[in-house]
Write a structure and sequence with these properties.
The chain is α+β, with helices and mostly antiparallel strands. It has a domain of 41 residues. Helix content is 19%, strand content 23%. The chain is built from 1 helix and 4 strands; from the N terminus they run E-E-E-E-H. Strands 1-2-3-4 form a 4-stranded antiparallel beta sheet. The protein starts with 8 loop residues before the first strand and ends with a helix. This is DUF397 domain-containing protein.
Length: 62
């Protein structure tokens, strides 16, 4: 998967202390990408947009 066009943004729920941060890229067609800001080269999770929306909806309920 070519990630060169991914536009990453820090999650609004990430801590402000530079620690527990997650970045999301949702600008590529058909995929939502998630990575750890502390280890950007450590791997990227890829979700189908519907699965990502379901996850975010569930997380908002908590």
């Amino acid at each position: 998967m070519d990630l060169t066009g991914a536009q990453w943004r820090k999650s609004s729920r990430s801590g402000g202390n530079g620690g527990s941060c997650v970045e999301v890229a949702d600008n590529l067609p058909g995929v939502v990408l998630v990575r750890d800001t502390k280890d950007r080269s450590g791997g990227t999770l890829a979700f189908a947009p519907a699965a990502w929306r379901a996850f975010v909806g569930f997380a908002r309920q908590r």
